Every structure is written in structure tokens, then in C-alpha cells.
Amino acid sequence: MTQHQYSLEEIRLRLNELDDQLLSIISERRALSIEVAKSKVETSKPVRDAKREQELLVKLINNGKEKYQLDATYITKLFHTIIEDSVLLQQSYLQDLANPQQSRKPLARVAFLGAKGSYSHLASREYFSRKNTELIELNCSHFKEVASTVESGHADFGVLPIENTSSGSINEVYDLLQHTTLYIVGELTLPIEHCLLAPQEMRLEDIKTLYSHPQPHQQCSEFLSRLNGVTLESCASTADAMQKVKDMKQTDVAAIGNSSSGKLYGLQIIKENIANQTENHTRFIVVARKPVEVSTQIPAKTTVIMSTSQETGSLVQTLLVLQRYGINMTKLESRPIMGNPWEEMFYVDLKAHLESQEMQQAIVELTKITRHLKVLGCYPIENIKPTQVKLES
Prior knowledge:
The chain is α/β, with parallel strands linked by helices. It folds into 4 domains: 9-98, Up-down Bundle (Chorismate Mutase Domain, subunit A); 103-192 and 281-288, D-Maltodextrin-Binding Protein, domain 2, CATH 3.40.190; 194-271, Periplasmic binding protein-like II (D-Maltodextrin-Binding Protein, domain 2, 3-Layer(aba) Sandwich), CATH 3.40.190.10; 300-380, Alpha-Beta Plaits (2-Layer Sandwich). Helices cover 42% and strands 25% of the residues. The strands form 3 sheets. Strands 1, 2, 3, 4, 5 and 11 form a 6-stranded mixed β-sheet that branches. The radius of gyration is 24 Å and the shape is globular.
């Protein structure tokens, strides 16, 4: 029998040492990323340099393969995470310079839908953790309460889900934006991992009642259609559903929610991955009473709402304006105007900085040909696309 050179305990100690070294190196690298951001303030260079990122990743892949026998896919995944973190750090630094009053506030009051453990709560924590901001969490029972809590000044920010890759647009939030005085100041895309949760182990055929928010019911419709004789009950949020199931302590009820949130309520996972799509993501917007200043060195998105005349081709005219100025539209959503039958308000997400010359000219032209136009906000794009390199097969 071959004798091991080191004991298991010695191996674990060495792994711990290496892990500490990795943490130290990552910390030093993050500090250097801030120094890069400081240099870009002086040169006015954009945060991302796609060509340099590609060259860096190719070099790392080649070195990893030749010197250390590391798999290219492994290196790519690792440095995608590191590059994303570096980009977000630099963007945050530049945003703090552009918004000095906000950067001095290490504490923020944030309103969101549901209790702790709801997806809106998870999104709130994820978004503000990137800002190194501690939260005073204000849970609300419906979307309108989130908006009114911010409008009244009782919260600094509100977090609202606006669209999902499976169930589509969340119309209630779009309708709310039509009447609010708030501005969009940020966004976040959160992976949604729906699970079936219950107080104890149970068979699927034993479930009689299933609690959740209407959105997860839609997003898991294919799985739910295979459950016989189950009554679907709607709750204000997934957190409320989990709390209800916990309090009921019955052997025939379950909830749909996130697995980590289920642990907060003492619930067990009965079935994982029950969403219609494996890639299930929800986009959340962050709203505030005042707009945010966005550094011109940061990729930005601008959201506007507008209504057009009832004449043929009026909407096409507005789209031609955007085409003429080379502005990429990433979202177009129409919603009825309350009190005006058959008239619609259009919500448009544009991949452009509000202060850019192209966007300013487009706003002037759009104002002339629309019945109503309002900028809901200009905010940083924080969904960082991975650097693309071609891996050898």
C-alpha cells in the first residue's frame, strides 16, 4: 500500500494557509482596482476596456494551461467573477464621486415587498451589499406601499420587481410608475430559484394547499399542472407564504420560495428546481425621491415613459428618432392609461446616458412628437456582461 507523504491533518492545514493567501491576494487586487478607477478620473477613460479584458483573459488561460495545468473553463469562470467585481468596484467609486452626499451615508432605509426572506428582500440585500451600505429594512405588504413609503420620506429607497424571464413584465409595477413621483436610480438582476417547502418531509401527492405570491405560481405553472387536486392560495409575498405554512403546522400544506429563505422559517425542501425555465431571473429596480447623477465613464441606462397620438405610425416615428441617433432600445412595454380608454403609455429602456449628446437631441425631438414624455431615471448598468474569448475545443 502506498504511504501518503502528508497526513490528512497536515494537508488541511496547508489548504487553510493557501486559502488565507488567496484572500490576501484578492484583497490586494481589489485595492489596486480602486487605484485604476482613480487614474481613470484623471484621464476620463471609461471603466471597461473590452480589448484589454480579452487580452488579459487569453494570457491567463494560456499561462494557466502551460505553467499550472489548469483547465481553461475553470480559469474563465474564476476571472469572469474577478473582472465583474473589479468593474463594479470602479463604478461604485466613480458614482460616489458623482454623488458625494449619498456616499457619506453608510446607512439607508430600504422599503421592499414582503417580510425577511422574500425575493425583494434578497434583492435589497444583494444590491446594497455592493455599496457597503448597512440597511434599515422596511417590509411592505404591497407594491403601492413600497412607493408611498419612499415618497413620504420614511424610506430612502424602494426595491421593486419589474420583469421576470419566465412570467414576463410585472404590470402592477409598471402601472405604479405611471403615477409616482419617484425616479429609478439603480437596477439588479437576481437569479430566482423556486423550491417547494414544507414544515416536514411529505410526498407531493399529500399536498392539498400550496401558498405563494402569484408570480411564482405563474413561473412554476408547468410543475403545478402535474399536481392533482392542489388548491393554489395567493399571498402578498413568498415570505408571507412561508410564514403562513410555518404557523399552520399542517401535514398537507406547502409553500413556494427560496431554499435559503425557507431555512429562516424552519421549512424543509420537498422539491427543488420547479420553475418552468432553468434560467429564471427577475429584474428589480431601485427607486428614490431624487434622481442620481451617473458618471459619464460608466455604462448607463435611461428609462422614459411617453404617450403618442392616435394617428397611424406615431409610435414608429418615435422609434425612428432613436434609430437615427443610434440609441439601442432594450425594453418597450405598453400599459393602458387609466381613465383614457384605448390609450396607452409606453415605457422605454434605452442603453444610453441621459447627458450624452445623442440622448439629449433625441429627447428634444421626442418631446415634439409625443403627447407626454417623462424621464423616469438614468442609472448605471450593473449587469456586467462576461468578457468573451474563444476557448479551444
